[in-house]
Amino acid sequence: MRLHLSLFDSLEAGLDEAGRGSLAGPVTAAAVIFNPGTNLPELNDSKKLTKNKREILKNEIEKKALAFSVVSVDSKTIDRINILKATMKAMHDAIKSLKIKPNHLLIDGNYFTKYKDIPHKCIIKGDSKYQNIAAASILAKTYRDKLMINLDLKFDKYGWKKNKGYGTLEHKNAIKVYGASEHHRKSFRLFNKQLVLNL
């Protein structure tokens, strides 16, 4: 799928996140700046790619990006400040961590809290429209997936190696049996309680 190279010809960073709707683990954001003219035609929304393709593209992105960064915000911080603020914190920290200051930001989605004096534009489904956002999507997902796989080594009863902390039936059943771990988001509804009718 051929995506737009950028919205502007300046040092533009694309941003995306992974893990916002997960029940456990961090929310992870990535920022990517490409040289104008860089073209990776296989880039796409990370959710539309296979695991192997994401890993291949991750390596290509890291080689060809002018600058990139990936930042995670843990579940305790998510519980303390809420998921929206935690997502914005991850994105802001990712921008701050870039070795080059971008002149413009392209954000996947419809909401962003302004970062310093850098102009930004939100793009709905931007990860399937712009290369730098698609690249950020891939980095955010691959890095977060690796974090969840590593956490699974100590918390294997929840199946994070497979579900990456999302609310699958297997994961919710494990929470019911074993309770919530230190990496679960206590501010989230970890499973839906069955309604009982008193007839």
- What is the H/E order? EEHEHHEEHHH
Overall average pLDDT: 92
Write out the strand line-up for the largest beta sheet, numbering strands in chain order. 3-2-1-4-5
Distance between the termini: 56 Å
**Uncertain ranges:** 194-199
CATH class reads Alpha Beta
Total of domains: 1
Could you tell me the strand content as a percent range? 15-25%
SSE-based structural type: alpha/beta
DSSP strand tally: 5
Characterize the main sheet.
5 strands, mixed
The CATH fourth-level homologous superfamily = Ribonuclease H-like superfamily/Ribonuclease H
Query: Which CATH-level-2 architecture?
Result: 2-Layer Sandwich
**Radius of gyration over C-alpha positions, nearest whole angstrom:** 18 Å
Explained architecture:
The chain has one domain: Ribonuclease H-like superfamily/Ribonuclease H (Nucleotidyltransferase, domain 5), CATH 3.30.420.10. The chain has 6 helices and 5 strands, in the order ββαβααββααα. A 5-stranded mixed sheet has the order 3-2-1-4-5, sandwiched between helices. It is globular, with a radius of gyration of 18 Å. The termini are far apart. The C terminus is likely disordered.
